[in-house]
Amino acid sequence: MMAEPSYSPLPLLVTSQCLHPLFHNKPGTMAAILKGIRAAFGDVEMAPYTVVAERDSYEERIYPARKWACTTMKGLNRDELISPMFRALFNYISGKNDPNIRIDMTSPVTTYVEPGAGPDSESTFTMGFLVPEEYQQCPPQIADKTIFFEDRPELTVLTRRFGGYANDEIILKEVKELAEAIKKSGEIGVNFDQYYIVGYDPPFKLFSRRNEIWFIKTKDNFESKEENDSTRNEENKNRETNGSLIKDCDAEQDQKTEVH
């Protein structure tokens, strides 16, 4: 999604479902096949948003609060971490969960970047898949301990699109140019210390690719670094309380298992 991984998971998903003989004995086979084919070509549920302002070189959007399945890794660059993070999340939606059900792919795939203190310091990367709307209240339980749920609050995002495959070199260029454009327009209350890298397309899509950088703007046009840190700490607390949420969802998951 974000850049070309070492494998193409969506075509493999479609192929395995279409060709495996056991799959043809399950109810809803044709609907599942068609859904898998649509997903392979990028026809998936999208994170909702509203464009509230358009500037000369970027736009302002509001994203409603949503739950995301996430995984975090640290490293000197993002390129080498894409595949293991993506694989962990893709395994979760492919059935490595309780009650072992397949969850539809969504878009975009976001990666929250917390840069290291210096050029030789590791940065923290948190990749996220949007939990589909039907599972927002009660997502399937996580089996992989490297994955967690993030209750992402409503976000005001400043962004613009760019094409191609988003490698580290291109991303740094886009981050710099978007930050300069935002500062030139006189925006205040924008967090330039961290940002999101956002990709919308499967890796085998060659043309008209959609990538974005997101900078987060506060509702009141001002937020101190301490308040930013407080927000991230609150998100970490939300991760720790996921267990109680999952327990409350057991009955609903049993019903969904019977449907699937």
How does this structure look, described?
26% of the residues are buried. This protein has 260 residues and is α+β, with helices and mostly antiparallel strands. Residues 1-25 and 221-226 have low confidence and may be disordered. The strands form three sheets. A nine-stranded antiparallel beta sheet has the order 2-3-11-13-12-7-8-4-10, with helices on both faces. Strands 1-6 form a two-stranded parallel sheet. It contains seven helices and 13 strands.
Radius of gyration: 19 Å
The global form is globular
Task: Characterize the largest beta sheet: strand count, sense, and whether it forms a barrel.
Answer: 9 strands, antiparallel
* Number of β-strand runs: 13
Strand arrangement, largest sheet? 2-3-11-13-12-7-8-4-10
Helices and strands: which structural class? Answer: alpha+beta
The unreliable regions are 1-25, 221-226
- Roughly what is the average pLDDT, rounded to an integer? 81
Separation of termini? 27 Å
Q: Estimate what percentage of residues fall within beta strands.
A: 25-35%
Give the SSE string. Answer: HHEEEEHEEEEEEEHEEHHH
- Give the helix tally: 7
**Helix percentage range:** 25-40%
